[in-house]
Amino acid sequence: MINLITNELIKQLSRPRMWISLGVIVFINTIASLFVYMLFDGIQFSFWEYMRISSNLLIVLQVFCLIIAGDIVSSEFSSGTIKLLLIRPVNRVRVLLSKYLTVIVIATLLTTVHFVFSSILGILWFYDSFFDFSVNVFIVAGAYVLRFLELVVICSFAFTLSVLTRSSSFAIGSTIFLTFSAGTFLLVMNERGMEWGKYLLFANTDLQQYFFGTPPFEGMTFLFSIGVIVVYLIGFGGLAGWFFGRRDVDV
């Protein structure tokens, strides 16, 4: 499994989009930190408050990660390299799992780079408050963890669509559309009393809504959303594994 993941990582790192992603992280963080510094210049504002705000920039990473997740399987079919991959004496499910874990590793890597670079910029602009723990450090850590979990769920959805449709454009486009338009649809559903909307995946992916906002439907709780997400992830894994294991690879 380690060798499979390593090979997948090498393939992904050889593509320009990985380096573009890192470049965008540096650029977005630099601009955002400068904007926050100018906005709060002369106002009491701490390093830890800046770090909590910077966690929201992970939504940019979602786009890059879901592009990788939506392409990592379907691109093998479109290029015909899936045949070469499956002639190895490795179970198909292990091949699929290695690709999914590669997506998670890349998501973790990009999130880590974002956190580290944000910290460097935060120290640069707000170094006086670096040791000021008036803002709970656990709040900052929690914000990053919740955003990362959301990222993983979104990538899992794109990955599953990629396996089912073998179309990168459909998997990526559909996921981006649902990610950024779900809020509007959920608002309309709530206004029309369509309470079953709380069981939809995208009503539960933003776990920060329980700490820094309001859930889209009454009666939703943090544990409820965790349960819904787990059910969907199990369903995604089972469906993708079954479909990939049985699908004809003659393309």
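(the above was protein one; protein two follows)
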Amino acid sequence: MARRHRPVWGLLCALCLLLSGAFAQPAYAAMDVAKQVLIGADFSGQELRGATFNLTNLRDATFAGSDLQGASLFGAKLQDADLSNTNLKEATLDSAIFDGTNLTNAVLEDAFAFNTKFKNVVIEGADFTNVPLRADALKTLCASAHGSNSVTGRSTRDTLGCS
């Protein structure tokens, strides 16, 4: 009786292996360059969704035109970095340092930036829709907010809730 079921058993085992992913293509994880020194690095125009740059020194780095949706830049140092025309939707920017950073036409919709430090940033046309910010950061940003985002069409001042 046991011999009759062997072919069925083998077929079931093969099916289980196939469904478990044993024969599937390898999955590639998002880029992780946490805690690195990448001063002056050029990431312009790149697909970097979900990438991790936590605590990374990105001073003078260029991300112009890149897709950083869902990326994590927790505690990253972005002094004098170029993030113009960058998609930062749903990105984690908490505790990052933006000093002299170019955010022209960047889309930061739904990004988390509550403890982010903003100083001397260029935010012409940046979209801050649904971005939680501390009162001091909001005051700093509203002082220089102008323009409308070229992708979303939203006014920078409106997305920040400036009065």
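Reviewer note on protein two: The longest helix spans residues 2-20.
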